[in-house]
Design goal:
By secondary structure, this protein is an alpha+beta fold. The protein contains three helices and five strands, in the order αβββαββα.
Length: 141
């Protein structure tokens, strides 16, 4: 899949990008679609399609760069808030098959990224939460 990956093409120098920062493990560049001013993508240099295949070292490098970019966005844009988001697979809304983090400075009323389509869900019963936690614990690597 790396041959068809636009992020790998950016990393190879075959596509242009407005680079914010980069190191040996990751690169941060402006998203072509500026849903909000300052929308940055943080991408590992190694092609990994989703978070499910991401190793801990690459994940750590990705998050370190995302935090640096978020802090810079806080200073540069003085946002009222900030989203850091990552999507996987079609159902998760992933559009590019290369794991990446979106860093988005937010302003009140900017209309971006409604998390709950209608209303915030009511809290789940403790028994349900405990059962889900137990189920997940059984699958930790």
């Amino acid at each position: 899949m790396a041959g068809a990956c636009p992020f790998c093409a950016i990393l190879a120098g075959d596509l242009p990008a407005s680079v914010v920062c980069e190191d040996a493990h990751a690169i941060a560049f402006m998203d072509l679609r500026q849903a909000v001013p300052g929308h940055v993508l943080v991408v590992p240099r190694r092609h990994v399609e989703t978070i499910f295949e991401l190793d801990e070292d690459t994940a750590g490098a990705l998050m370190r760069m995302a935090v640096r970019v978020a802090q810079a966005a806080g200073r540069a844009f003085a946002p009222a808030g900030l989203n850091l988001w990552q999507s996987n697979g079609h159902a998760g809304g992933q559009e590019v098959p290369h794991v990446h983090l979106h860093v988005q400075p937010r302003q009140v009323g900017d209309g971006l990224l409604r998390i709950y389509p209608e209303r915030v869900p009511a809290p789940a019963a403790r028994a349900q939460l405990d059962a889900l936690a137990l189920h997940l614990r059984g699958h930790l690597a």
